[in-house]
Amino acid sequence: MLLASRVLATLAASAWLSFAMAASDPVLLQSTTSTQNSGLLDYLLPKFTAAMGIEVRVVAVGTGQALKNARNGDGDVLLVHAQDAEEQFVARGYGVQRFDLMYNDFVIVGPRHDPAGLSGLDNAVDALRAIAGQAALFASRGDDSGTHKRELGLWRLTGIDSSAASGGWYLETGSGMGATLNTAVGLRAYTLTDRATWIAFGNKTDFAVLVAGDHQLFNQYGVILVNPDRHPHVNAAGGRALIGWLLGRHGQAAIAQYQIAGQQLFFPNAKVR
Predict the structure, then answer these.
(1) Is the pLDDT of residue 6 over 70?
(2) What is the SS3 assignment for 83?
(3) CB-based burial of residue 29 (10 Å sphere; 0-12 exposed, 13-18 middle, 19+ buried)?
(4) 151 vs 3, which has greater pLDDT?
(5) What are phi and psi of 270, to 5 degrees?
(6) Looking at the structure, do residues 119 and 171 belong to the same domain, yes or no?
(7) Which residue of 42, 77, 169, 251 could cross-link 135, Cys pair, CB 3.0 to 4.6 Å?
(8) Does the pLDDT of residue 16 top 70, yes or no?
(9) Cβ neighbours of residue 50 under 8 Å, at least 6 residues apart?
(10) 224 and 151 within one domain
(11) Mean pLDDT on 193-217
């Protein structure tokens, strides 16, 4: 009986040690460029590491690429912003569960002289119709990112096939948000951007936010653990620790506190754990 107790204690200690070692391994976070370009991850993740002793390594790509990488098992946690695609990712068994994390909004920016007359509009679909009607230059990311997915959804609502104008007034950069903003500024073109990247963007020249506040521009971010049943090498313990911290009061408070030039970039909306 004593021997059996010792064996059980040894097994329990071994299991705990394995868990602790797994949790302390680096977590690979597949995330969207807006969380990186805005500076949020550089601000947020060191706080998690200091609290939990777990390093986080980031791959910052468009949401579509991040989802693809995670489907291939290249990542432990997803932090992206295309809710329909995220829910499909979970429904198909690639992710364990999706949680709302935080939100901000998309905005349409352009030169202050505003050749398509967008200023004062509060409807994004009307704004895109005006751009197309004037054949005013529009820079699209064209990269299957969350921002690009939202832009295409807005074009569908206009009833206009923007792709038919590709290479004309409709310009597809195939690049991240920062590069697309630089293209838009250089060519005096309109573009759709998440507000956080816009606030952090340093090359605004005479560009300004021209359309904002439409419910169609709401931008929700979600966080998902990649399914270890699908990919056994996933650092599930470390990933759960990161997600738990982000959804908890410390992570949510840190998100709320992140500002640039006195402006809050992201608004936490997890159900605090």
Answers:
(1) no
(2) helix
(3) buried
(4) 151
(5) -70, 155
(6) yes
(7) 169
(8) no
(9) none
(10) no
(11) 96
Rounded-to-integer distance, Cα 114 and Cα 210, Å: 8
- The sign of the dihedral angle between the CA atoms of 255, 257, 262, 268 is positive
**Structure tokens, 50:** 């200091």
Average pLDDT over residues 28-44: 95
Q: Work out the average pLDDT over 82-86.
A: 95
Same domain? For 211 and 109 the reply is: yes
Q: Examine residue 1 and state whether it is found in any structural domain, yes or no.
A: no
Q: Which of 150, 129, 268, 272 is nearest to 218 (CA)?
A: 150
Judge whether 193 lies within some domain: yes
The answer on 213 and 139 residing in a single domain is yes
Helix/strand/coil for 112: coil
Domain that includes residue 116, residue range: 105-217
The answer to whether residue 76 sits within a structural domain is yes
Number of domains in the chain: 2
CA nearest to 193, candidates 153, 150, 160: 150
14 belongs to a structural domain: no
Answering whether pTM is above 0.85, one says yes
